[in-house]
Each structure stands twice: as C-alpha cells, then as structure tokens.
Amino acid sequence: MAQTKTEVVGGKPKSAFKIAAKKQLPRVVTAGIAFIAMAVIAFFNVSRSLTVASFALDEYEIGQVADRTIVADRNLPGTMEYPTVVQKGEKVIKKGFVISEEAYRKLEKMANIHEYIDYRAFANSLIYLALLIVLWFFLFSKTLVGHTVHLKESIVNVIFFLAVFASAVFTRKLNFASGSPFTLCVFMPTSLFIFLIVILFGEKQAVFFALVSALGLFNASNFSVIVFLYALLTGFAACRIARKLENRIQLVFAALITAMLNVVVAFLLKVIFNEDFDGSGIIAFGLAINGFFSGILALGFITPLEQILNTASVFRLIDLSDLNNPIMRKMLLTASGTYNHSIMVAQLAENACKAIGANSLMARVGAYYHDMGKIDQSEYFVENQSGENKHDEINPNLSVSIIRSHVKKGVEMAVSMRLPKQVIDIISEHHGNGVMQYFYQEALKTNPDVKAEDFSYFGNPPTSRESGVVMLADTVEAACRTLDKPTVPRLEKFIHTLIEAKMQAGQLKNCALTFAELTKIQETFVSILAGYYHSRIEYPDQKDPDAQDKEKEKEAKESKPEGKASKKGKADGK
Prior knowledge:
Blueprint: H1 2-47, E1 51-52, E2 55-56, E3 70-71, E4 91-93, H2 101-112, H3 119-139, H4 142-145, H5 151-172, H6 181-186, H7 190-201, H8 203-220, H9 225-242, H10 250-272, H11 280-309, H12 314-320, H13 326-334, H14 336-356, H15 360-369, H16 396-416, H17 421-429, H18 437-446, H19 465-480, H20 488-504, H21 515-532, H22 547-573
Antiparallel strand pairs: 1-2, 3-4
Helix pairs in contact: 1-3, 1-5, 3-8, 5-7, 5-8, 7-8, 7-9, 7-11, 8-9, 9-10, 10-11, 13-14, 14-15, 14-19, 14-21, 15-17, 15-19, 16-17, 16-18, 17-19, 19-20, 20-21
C-alpha cells in the first residue's frame, strides 16, 4: 500500500511537468527557430567582420606591443590584393613583442579575406545569443508580463527582433555606415516596432522588447556601447510616448516627439563619449527622419496587424466602445433593459478598474457586450419585462436552460464578430460557474433532492482582474435595483455582502484580485450607485400623476358596500 501511494504521489509532479512542458512547447519551438535565424545572421556578421581571434583589427597598429599571441589556424596563399602568405600554425604576432609591418599585413589579410572565418568570435556570438534567449523566456513569462503570453505574441516579438538584429548587421556592412556608430542608429527600426508592440500587446511587453533589442544590437554592432545605450534610451522613451495614445491621429504627434528625442539622445551621447561632431547635421537629420517615419509607418501597419492578430489594442477597443455599432443599436431596440443595465455595468467596471490600476477600457468594452446573448430572447430576462414574468408559466429547469444559454449565445456572437479573446473571456466568465439561486430555491420547494450543479452556469470563474471586476459590477448593479431605500450605509453593507458571497463561492480565486483591491472596488461601486440612487426634494405643487386614479378607486370601495346592501334589501323584499 505504501509503495502504491508513493507511486501515486510521485506521479503528480511528473504529470504537472508534462502539462507545463506541453504548454511551453510552442514557445520553445519559436525560440529555437529564432536562435537558428540569429545564428545565421551572426555567421554572416562574423564572416564579413574585420576580426581576428575575436578581436577587432582596429585594436592593432604597426609598432604597438602585442598584448596577446595570435596563431594562424590555416594556410592563406598570396593573392593580388593581399600578396602576403600566412602559414598554418604560424605565430602572426607574439605577446610582448612589437607588431611589425609584415605582421600587421598578415593580420589585415586574415581579417579581410572570406576564406578566413573567426570561429571564436562566432562561438562568442552564439553563447551571447543563447543567453539572450534565456533572458527572453524570463522577461516574457506570465509572472512579469501579468498574463500568459500567447503564441502569436511570441511570434510577432521574435519577427520584430530579427528585423532589428538583421538591419543592424547588414547596415554595418555598408561602406558609408562603417564609421560612426550613430550612422548605424539611423537605420535601426527599433522605435517602429516598439510603437506597434505597445499598441498591440501593452507597455510591459514593449519595455522588455526594448531591453532585449538593445542587447541584441549590442552584439550586432560589435559590442558598441553607444549603439546599446542609444537603442535602450530611445526604446524606453518610445514606450512612454506610446502608452498614452488614445486614437490613431495621436501617432503623428508621437512621431514628432520621437524625432526630437532621437536627436537629443544622440547629442548627449556624443558629449558623454567625446565623439567628433563632424557630419553631425546629416546624422541628426537621419535620426529625426527615423523617429518620424517610425510613427507614420506604425500608423499604417497597426490596422492590418489588429485584424490579422485580433488583438485587444487600445485603438481596437476604442472602436468597439462606440455605442452606435449595429449590435448595440439592436440591443437598445430589442432589449432596452439589458442595454441600460450594460451601460451601468460598464460605468461601474471602468471606474473600479481605474481605481485598482487595471485596464479600464477593456472592462468597459467587455461590460458593453457581456449580455448581448440576451438579445434573441430578451423577454425572458427581468430587466426587459414590464409586469408579466414568463418564467411563472414554465418549469424551473426550462427557465435555467434559457437563462444559462445567454452566455453561450453571447460567446458565439462575439466569435462571429471576431472580438478580441480578452473580451470573449469576459463574456464567458461574467457569471462564472455560480448557482442561479432564485430558480434553485424554487426547485427545492417541489424537490428537496435537487442538485445545485443542475442550476449552475457552465462557465469558468474569471481569470483576469478586468473579468472579475465586470462580474462584480454585473452582480451589484442588478441586485441593488431591488434594494429599498438605497442610502450609503445600506449600499455599503449590501455590496460588501454581495462581494463576500462571490468570494465564498470561489468565483474570484483565479482573477488575482487582492483584498485591498476589492475594498477599492467596493468603495467605487458605493460612490457611483449612491449618486445614481440619490434622493430629490419634492417640487412645490408637485402632484402625484396617479392621484385621480387613486381617488376613483377609493370612492368605488366606499360605494361598494352600499350597493350590496340595496341588492340584499331588494332580494329580501321579494
């Protein structure tokens, strides 16, 4: 028995490891392909670089005392361009000895001809890039990013990085770009890709991408500190500029700001590193053009990328928050109660997310669409009923199936509309797997053995803070409509009870909301609903619109007994 228990217990970590490995497999494959691509680019870089034994040729000069010994690893016959002959195993320069003109010519030959490839420098690049891949895995983890990084996000980040890395490598091989490191900076599209990543995936991923790109460019530029610092500083600046964008036209202003910052950063680096200012005007113009066109090109690429990747970018969410779109107008006409409920839930969720630092725009859009599955059968939902309740005429089990179906229908509609996955998750999770208490209690009256699971929603508890806030806002908004005399103290107690009930039911266990955040959410809900249900002073001479009807009913009640008495008298008379 003990042995069996050990096997069972021992099997759990193995199973968990397999599940984790399976989840990470696509990212591992993507990283492997990226490493192979970077290795090819690095090989091209080394094979075309002026390096000998992983050291740059410009580190040596005639008459200099050598600080290392370099041995030729192959025979290099004389050519028209380089007539000097190099023998395999020959000590080209010796540590502690002066470099002669002949030795320098041999070094120059080894650095320039294509037959000689500095494999030591290539191996150094491979090790460096392998460490960069490890850093990429660490930075783009769920712990640091805040959510699971999807495969499409990883692929886009890798493609963008390879484009930046390759642009630096190939630009260095151009004759006019082989001098100042600032000339290389002119052709680096780092700001363009950072703009796109901020808009498509958020600021955190863009910051990490800026860091990884700067480290990649450090290798591609033959470890130029100036290129590394320029890429890092301008990358972080682009992240901060793009994080506040709310519409597409603001990208033009972001492009202008980036253009100016590029020039300022380059000027400061020239001063710090005491670089020559000759030709600075042309370089400054090139850096400004780079920054400006980064914003303009991002403006052109963002829309097709939004459609291809189906991401919840800020621009896409703003478009979806337009209440004049066809589905919201249809909701207004066919399910006006649901429409007004959704608007109120959106206000509660948006302000609560602002209070806790979550994505308020995401919560607002998710709240707008969370109940759109009610449109087809709106008359079965209480907010759309005016007196008669259709559920009084049908079995509780049938009522449950109708109420439950609005979540599934909403998800199907969202998929057909190609809404972002984050919005679809909010729709599918806004009821979690909670029990429909009203119908469950009704069913208990006729069958005490009924199971709570039969009256539960089929969804999953919220998996994001925004989804959790929308669930709470949905519950609070609907429940507070039934509260008599909704004063601030009564609202506070009631909302606290509702949130506590969700916690006890396990509906908030996966959405990473802290107790401090729940307190802020409750305070926000109370503040908004207290204003919504505020009391008003009665106007002078204000009349009750039902006063006449009430007076007639009163008179009819008073005259009714007399009529009965006269009839009785007539009957007695007979």
